[in-house]
Amino acid sequence: MKNLKLKAARAALDLSQQDLADKVGVSRQTINAIEKGDYNPTINLCIAICKALNKTLDELFWDPS
Amino acid sequence: MSKKVRNLILILGSIVVFIALLLIFYPKNNYSSNFETNVTIRDSSAENDTFETSVDVKRKGIYVISFSFWQGESPNYRVPGFISGITILDEKGNIVKATSAGALEIEYTPITLEKGKYTLKVKVLSDQKSYDEFCQKYLDMPSSADTIDIFKDGSWQMHYNFKIQQYVGLFIIGLIAGSIFLVAVLMIPILDFARIDNDKTKQYDERQIAMQGKAYKYAFYTMLIYFSLIALLTLLNDLPLFIKLPFSSDLLIIFGLLLGIIVFAVTAVMKDAYFSLNDNKNFFITFFSILAFVNLALGIYHIAHGDIARDNGFTMVNFGNLLFGTAMLVLLISLLLKKIKDRKED
After folding, report:
1. Looking at the 3D structure of chain B, how many domains does it have?
2. Residue B4 and residue B10: Cα distance in Å, rounded?
3. Over the range B54-70, which residues count as b (16 or more CB within 10 Å of their CB) and which as e?
4. Domain carrying residue B207
5. Quick one: CA dihedral B173, B175, B177, B180, positive or negative?
6. Alpha carbon distance A6, A49 (integer Å)
7. What is the ipTM of this complex?
8. Out of B205, B342, B346, closest to residue A25 by CB
9. Which residue of A has its CA nearest to B269?
10. What tens digit of pLDDT does each residue of B117-149 get?
11. What is the pTM of this model?
12. Torsions phi, psi for B115 (to 5 deg)
């Protein structure tokens, strides 16, 4: 399932996938895979992404449905 | 580009130029002589029982001596009704090699040969007595199992091939080129040069490590299936009507390893898990291109000189570089495809 919330949060800060990848210390392809729903990140990476985007885990990774 | 990377490219470039020059200017000291003859045996006695052929070695060096002989139209080890006693003599008459068999194809381990004429002498051993005498005189051992069933009267068309090939040269170059391939592809995950930063450690993220695990799994299953098939084919090989594999056993093993390596490398490349976050991809693409070129050039050289295969099929010595070059090319194509895919995504 695509993670559109992550994509939106990244776009809101005007960050490219590469910018976000550099901030959290992963490859651009990893960010791309998370946004496309091809890869489920570990909790550590989720936290790192949330910190980089100033969001909470719920805001980016919780699916209410 | 950092100074370290530039120096490395310079060293590799120099090696390639050196190999290319060697390929062009290295004297090709290969000598061979073939002859066919009709051997007729009546009342256990050959009409003409000695033949010989010779080659002139023009310079001292390390050589591989090989010869083969058989009866009939094709080299399929058909045994005539006598044994050929083979001696290879140097100019002074010293025995370099001696052996005996009904039909044979043999390649000896490399030895140093002086400059001069080397003669292959064939003695037709048409009965047990002459065979015993040959074994005592030249092989310094009693004759092997009772061969009384072999000796028959009749007439046979015999083919004798004698070759002396220089060992140092292409073989060593080929070995180096092949070895660099193995080291390079296998060691990429731990090599600590050609980084885009000065960090000494490889940095893979969690997804890359997970994908590497998948790549290793695919490689493992590929090798498992391949070696199971080879084991099965080898078992079946002795059965009648089964097609004999035209590859030597060392080549089959290397091919299996190569298959595993390539499955791992291509999977890791396509999943973006081959290079670490701080690897310089362009450096490795250049490096792999050089390796593919050198190995393929050596392979094509062997094809052009008609020695890519021997009578009994492909061997590691001449076919290996073509194999490594092709594997490298596959890896290179996957790297370029991935690069194009990444560019589109950007």
Report:
1. 2
2. 10
3. bbebeeebebbbbbbbb
4. 3-25+169-345
5. negative
6. 9
7. 0.88
8. B205
9. A29
10. 888 888 888 888 888 888 888 877 766 655 557
11. 0.56
12. -65, 140
